[in-house]
Amino acid sequence: MPRPATPCWTHRLQGAPDVLADTILGTVGDPAFAGRLRHHVDIGWGDAGKHRQLVTADTGIEVRIMLPRGAFLRHDMVIADDGVHVVVVRRPREPAIRVRFADNTARAMLLLGHTLGNQHAPIDVDHDTLTAPLFTSAAAAREMLAGLGVIGEVTEMAMAADGWSATSSDHSAAHHHAGHHH
């Protein structure tokens, strides 16, 4: 159910944001949001878990995001609605490594998994590919793939649109590393 206009949409006051987004209302495809004018906010994978941020929509309005801790902003989530306008999360394309399973041996994928795990890199896995954010230069990433014998590409993609498939920051299974603890 859409929220009333008063709590989230404000008239521009001295330094105040145009919109306060303090809850996730649904997704843009929900019938309740049909016909609404959309203000898209680009939230990259690295900021999707930040519950407090100030962002500017593609239409120029300022949106103060103040969500509960643990919230994860997925692509197409509606975070504000005044009955006419909605603020919608959009995941931008970002530098990434993308590898197709069919193009690689099990050994190459195991070595890549080991390397990404040591970097604590989150990954997106679907039925035929693995995608991970680029933590280095494109040239260094290409060199790393070649050194591991992995056939893949360095590209730009929207990542974690629906959350990560796997991330080493999920510590539901305890593990330890020499020199640091989780």
Automatic annotation (TrEMBL):
Domain UreE urease accessory N-terminal intervals: 24-86
GO-annotated molecular function: nickel cation binding
InterPro entries: UreE_C_dom (IPR007864), UreE_N (IPR004029), UreE_N_sf (IPR036118)
Regions crossing the membrane: none
Biological process, per Gene Ontology: protein-containing complex assembly; urea metabolic process
Full protein name: Urease accessory protein UreE
Species in which this protein is naturally found: Mycolicibacterium frederiksbergense
